């Protein structure tokens, strides 16, 4: 597995799309998908926390997705970190309920 994955300069593009958000001011459940290099689409679920200690995201992806990311010669942990950062910073697209 390559360790060259180091942020936006690595040639890896990840788009994050949120389809559903439900929750309160303190915590929210999110679901959606992310796209790697405009080619592969994977689903995720997350819980977003705010307020005390700052913002944080608990991201969940399937074992099948982890295996697919490994086959793409990427470190799944670094992909998860990049997605978490995008969610916290708001670097996402919110999908209309009529879009797929």
Question: What can you see in these coordinates?
Answer:
The protein is 23% helix and 37% strand. With 100 residues, the chain is α+β, with helices and mostly antiparallel strands. It has one domain. A five-stranded mixed beta sheet has the order 4-3-2-1-5, with helices on one face. The chain is globular, with a radius of gyration of 14 Å. Residues 1-9 have low confidence and may be disordered.
Q: Characteristics of this structure?
A:
single chain; 100 residues; alpha+beta; five-stranded mixed beta sheet; disordered N terminus
What's this entry about, in short?
By secondary structure, this protein is of the alpha+beta class. Helix content is 23%, strand content 37%. Strands 4-3-2-1-5 form a 5-stranded mixed β-sheet, covered by helices on one side.
Note the topology.
Elements: E1 14-23, E2 27-36, E3 40-49, E4 56-60, H1 63-71, H2 76-89, E5 93-94
Parallel strand pairs: 1-5
Antiparallel strand pairs: 1-2, 2-3, 3-4
Q: What string gives the helices and strands in order?
A: EEEEHHE
Question: Span between N and C termini?
Answer: 32 Å
User: Which strand order spans the largest sheet, edge to edge or round the barrel?
Assistant: 4-3-2-1-5
Number of domains: 1
Q: How many strands, which pairing sense, and closed or not: the largest β-sheet?
A: 5 strands, mixed
Please tell me the overall pLDDT. Answer: 87
Counting helices, strands and paired strands, the structural category is: alpha+beta
What share of the residues does DSSP label as strand, in percent? 35-45%
Helix content: 10-25%
Q: What is the CA-atom radius of gyration, in angstroms?
A: 14 Å
Number of helices: 2
**Tally of extended strands?**
5
């Amino acid at each position: 597995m390559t360790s060259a994955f180091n942020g936006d300069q690595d040639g890896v593009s990840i788009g994050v799309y949120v389809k559903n958000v439900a929750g309160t001011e303190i915590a929210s459940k999110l679901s959606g998908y992310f796209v790697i290099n405009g080619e592969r689409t994977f689903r995720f679920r997350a819980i977003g926390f705010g307020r005390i200690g700052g913002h944080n995201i608990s991201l969940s992806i399937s074992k099948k997705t982890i295996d697919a990311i490994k086959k793409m010669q990427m470190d799944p942990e670094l992909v998860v970190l990049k997605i978490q950062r995008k969610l916290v910073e708001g670097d996402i697209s919110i999908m209309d309920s009529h879009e797929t």
